[in-house]
Amino acid sequence: MSELNLEMVNEDPNPVKKKHNARVEIDGELCKECLLCIEVCAPDVLKVSESLNKMGYHPVEYIGDGCTGCGVCFYVCPEPGVIRVFKKNKVA
Ligand code: SF4
Ligand code: SF4
């Protein structure tokens, strides 16, 4: 299993205004639609895409808001390198 990918990014000059200071990226071409990440995501910010990837799976997508950066989706994903979690202005 690869390491949790946390990056220092400074996209928002005033991050205290944001509800959550994190985001998740999913490589849809590598996702095999096991749905484990959706099951464990407490704020329910992941969804299944309507489109198919090259392997014939409907990949999971981030809805674009509400990620807390907890990293649980990263740890349950059985496919290496699919999920990356970013926390802004913080290294955890
Ligand atoms: S890091 Fe946590 S909150 Fe963000 S998508 Fe993954 S499980 Fe959900
Ligand atoms: S846990 Fe990984 S492989 Fe499974 S649906 Fe989520 S991103 Fe795809």
Would you write up a description of this structure?
By secondary structure, the chain is α+β, with helices and mostly antiparallel strands. The chain has one domain: Alpha-Beta Plaits (2-Layer Sandwich). The protein is built from two helices and four strands. The chain has helices at residues 36-40, 72-76, and strands spanning 22-26, 46-48, 60-62, 83-87. The protein has a two-stranded antiparallel sheet with strand order 1-4. It has a two-stranded antiparallel sheet with strand order 2-3. The model has no long low-confidence stretch (mean pLDDT 85). The structure holds iron/sulfur cluster (SF4) (2 copies). The site of one iron/sulfur cluster (SF4) has 14 residues, from α2.
**Rg measurement, Å:** 13 Å
Contiguous uncertain segments of 5+ residues: none
Sheet-strand content, in percent, reads 15-25%
What's the overall geometry? globular
Average pLDDT metric: 85
Q: Enumerate the strands of the largest sheet in spatial order, edge to edge or round the barrel.
A: 1-4
How many domains? The number is 1
What's the CATH class label? Alpha Beta
> End-to-end distance, in Å?
18 Å
